[in-house]
Amino acid sequence: QALAHVRGLAGWWVGPSGASWVGRSMAAIPSLDGLGYVLNRLVTHPSGEGLACAEPAAAGTPLLALPLTACWTAERARRCQPVARELSRALGRNPLHELLQADDTWIVLHLLHERGLGPSATPEVRAHLELLARAGEETLLAWDETELATLSTSPWQGEAARRRQQLSADFQSLLQELGPEAASTLKLDEAGYQWARLGLQQHGL
Known about the structure:
Number of helices: 9
Order of helices and strands: EEEEEEEHHHHHHHHH
Strand content: 5-15%
Oligomer: single chain
Radius of gyration: 19 Å
Structural class: mainly alpha
Distance between the termini: 6 Å
């Protein structure tokens, strides 16, 4: 699992048909290279949505590279000392706990820890977090009760309720395993946990 920050990305190379644009709903992204991504011949599309080739490109030409070092991954989270220390301690006490082992958990706690650094975080991390904040949340878990009421005849209403309950149960389990001191170190609270999990669900690759 990896969390990238290109909302609505539809592709990142020129296909056989010679299509010259990638993405949609990306007008709010001021600079992808500022996020650590590598652009090749791409500029913001004149419409303000997506990206367009600045010059002709042959089919198969790479246009956008997303280095894993510029994404939120479990491997990157394991290199974050506070996250690795607290999760390793918890795993030492309960090595079979699936939530502690899950890559998603490592990524979520890394997001929360870095967000908690505020201005002390690196410029690239701050740009990522600002983009996530602007992107908003579009999954069913982000819907309020009025919005969910429109699904009264759909099984998705029950599924949304089940997933909300599971999210809350996961948070409580994680809090119990880590303990209050570790939770404070990692800036873990229920609202933050929900934010990070929804972000990972919506933008994860």
